Amino acid sequence: MTDSCLSGLRVIDASRVLAGPYCAQILGDQGAEVIKIESPDGDETRHFGPVVTEGGAAYFQALNRNKRGIVLDMGRPEALEVFWELLAGADVLIENFKASTLRSWGIEKPAQITSRFPHLVHCRITGFGDDGPLGGVPGYDAAVQAISGLMSVNGEATGGPVRMGVPIVDLATGMQAAIAVLSALRERDRSGRGQMCDLALYDCAIAIAHPHLPNYLWSGKEPARTGNSHPNITPYDAFDTATCQIYIAVGNDRQFATLCARLDSPALATDPRFRGNVDRIAHREELKAELNELLRKHDGHELADRLQLAGVPAAPILGIAEVAKDAHALHRDMVIDRDDYHGSGFPIKFSRTPSRLRMRPPKHGEHTREVLRQTGFDSSRIQALDESGAFGRAR
């Protein structure tokens, strides 16, 4: 097997919950050596049920493959010293510690970590950053969805704001963090110096408030909730058919004309009310009524297939159980279903250095002794650390 893209990179994942662990997993999937540090209580997502196995909850396992796991009680000076020694040999640190925790370790400002370890790329993930009016305030995905405006544009026009069904802020932050780490590593190749990457959930949420924030900045008008429809394009919406709901995502006039032709109503495309996207936006409800009448005559799955082949983006609205068994998802290896691991596949497909499942998610503290031995700790020191309570309990 050819080396993976990030083989030889050593990452210390001292983060917990979602954004940080997801970032570290992305790096691990591409071959980085990732060491996950947990407290004696463990990452709380190990218990985010309802599905909890010996290896932890499905939630935890989805974010922590391709890592080795150790336990350090960093409230103890002996364990904190181990942490600093691990950083001395690492390329990347990912963490989401509270600023007060860092201060208790003698780190008045997070940037001091890269002053101490000039080679290190330090990826710091917080809710709102460490300064400003909300600096230091903890952030969880749903609360940040609320305060960033994302929730305000999600939901039906006649209803209230709705939390998005996936933790979009945490996931987007994890992706941005991975980009930040790789960018800083590339810059380190030129300068020889690491740096701190400051990632806030709040910033990342505002960054993906598209197209609603740009629409507001250009128009001065507060965006309205539009349910399944798109605020800038139509028809871009969910529709009922004779058999199921489908989503039709028309992005231009050519696709609209093709849709009308496939629905045996080509004249609809030349109707002055619907000729261009601006016209269709102005007559959105009339168009939806016309399409609903036509679509009720069709089998949704069959029609979606025909539209896709004709170049019109359309798809049946599937449930997760259907997706897990979908022929294309399986063809793209986007479902991993093994005895020791179940999760989503690898979305990045490299031609020479493929992503792969090298390690299942670690059990709590599974690799503590192994990692310390490989870092240069001898057996007597490891035993002394264990007896001191640095690992929380004997390992």
Quick structural overview:
The chain has helices at 19-29, 58-61, 77-88, 99-104, 112-116, 141-147, 168-191, 201-207, 212-219, 253-262, 277-282, 284-295, 300-309, 320-324, 327-331, 368-375, 379-388, and strands at 10-14, 33-38, 52-53, 56-57, 68-71, 92-95, 121-126, 196-200, 236-240, 245-249, 314-316, 335-337, 342-344.
Can you describe what's shown?
Helix 1 packs across helix 7 (168-191) and helix 7 packs across helix 8 (201-207). Strand 12 and strand 13 (342-344) form a beta hairpin. The chain contains 17 helices and 13 strands. The longest helix is centred in the middle third of the chain and has 24 residues, at 168-191. The chain is an alpha/beta fold. Strands 5-2-1-6-7-8 form a 6-stranded parallel β-sheet, with helices on both faces. The mean pLDDT is 95.
